[in-house]
Amino acid sequence: MAAGRRFGATRRTTTALLAGTIGVLAPLGVALPVWAQTAPADGYYATPPPVDDSKLIPDERKPDKAYKPTKGCVQRAVLGQNIVLKTRPWGQDYLQIAKAQEIVKAATGSAGGGIRVAVIDTGVTRHPWFQNRLESGGEYVAKPSKGQPDGLEDCDGHGTEVAGIIAGKPDDPEVGFVGVAPDSTIVSYRQLSENYEPDTTPPSSTPPASSSGTPSSSTNPPSGSESSLPPSGNGGGSGGGDGDGTTPGQTNGGRQLEKPGTAGTLKTLAEIIHGIAQRHEASVINMSVDNCRTATGSITEGEQQVQAAVHFAASQNIVVIAAAGNATDTCLQNDQADTRKPKTIVTPPWFADDVLSVGAIDETGSVAPFSVHGPWVGVAAPGTKIISLDPAEGSVGLANLTFESGDKASEIQGTSFAAPYVAGLAALVRAKYPDLDAKQVVNRIKETSQHPAAPGGRDTFVGAGVIDPVAALTQSLPSEVGVVASDPGPQMAQLPPANDRSSTPMIVALAGTGGGLVALLITLFVMRTIRRNRPEPTGPVR
């Protein structure tokens, strides 16, 4: 009888030890994947390092080095057509720009009047549809060849088209095109150019800059190629009816800073941003210029300078907007599975705490294939089949074509032209809501965007979604009256499926479920064994 009791006690002790061991080991099996998920990062990838204010550099208000022209400036070419643009560009209708302008005009009397937008680009050419709303900001490439004010020569044709999307205002009632904020003022800074290169020759041997000679093949088509241009359709080459158009020397890869053989560095970009903020020269900055490089987990000196500059500008109540970048052979698309570790870094968009970066969509509402993805993308806007002001000197019309490799006519497209849609909207918001600070303006644009069908209402393709100007100008936001806004609900959109979902939560869930089942089976087995080995009672039953 005593032996039986001892045997029963031993069994109970063994069972308790078994259960305790299972209780200790099961949580460890579940916790391992979490440890792997929260391992410290090995560098700066999706998130840049903290701002280093010591990298804030003064604005020297001049080029950082000597540059010389390698190509003639953008020229006008006879397209053989005489078409006045009567229909609006698709982007204007898609965003209901006309309705948005009516809302602001009803409240303020103009569409962005009094708002100054700094355009840091290839310069802006004078055009009659800017009226007297184009001002000189600064020159960081070379003195204009014909005595124009600093920043008001655009040899590339890029900056004028960008500025036109923001503030172009046709004087012809039959022209459908109009800028987003057509009463705002453009302040132009020429900061880069693909028509210039660093000058390493002695000054005496440098040929004089001239845009009046025969342009190179990259700015004008070869002789006789005008007749091979594709038809302009209803987007004709000129809004003035004179039959002339433009062949700007730009590429659909966008304007890249620090590209070999061109003018423009991150240093001068940082200088300009800092100077604008110091002198309070604008309340909105548009940068359709980028520096794209392979992600290494580190940050360069020039990037730190730009980071410090945009942080300072944001602290000075300036809305800073940048193009998200265009994927090319040298700027690879971020299509990797782990969005937290991009393979390509684009500056200034990388500094998303202070910069609202803009991706591009096409006329179907889908993400444009060239638009660079990234966790820093803020919003999106139209970036294909662009129509804007003809950037050639003396032009009075519009352009909808560009030339690639000197003789290949193609449509104007890129995130460079999506960004000014957002800059124009920021100008309208600042005009209608003058009491909002820069962060509140950015928040209003994001919160009222058409959120993608993704977790949290944002993804790495279009950020918070395609901008909705009417909503941005009319919607009441809880965050502006001290109420925390709820998470935005997903809206149906023709976007590619998100590829940024982590598999770790699923692994943890399955591991936990599996561990629980194992523990249950072991417990059942132990209890069954105890019952089978329990001796039969020999005494009387009471």
Q: How would you explain this protein's 3D organization?
A:
It contains ten helices and 18 strands. It is elongated and about 120 Å long. By secondary structure, it is an alpha/beta fold. 29% of the residues lie in helices and 14% in strands.
Write the layout of secondary structure elements.
Layout: H1 2-37, E1 67-69, E2 76-78, H2 90-94, H3 97-108, E3 116-121, E4 134-139, H4 158-167, E5 185-190, E6 196-198, E7 244-246, E8 255-256, H5 266-279, E9 284-287, E10 289-294, H6 301-315, E11 319-323, E12 344-347, E13 356-361, E14 377-382, E15 388-389, E16 398-399, E17 401-404, E18 408-411, H7 415-432, H8 438-447, H9 469-474, H10 504-533
Keywords, please?
elongated, single chain, 542 residues, 7-stranded parallel β-sheet, alpha/beta
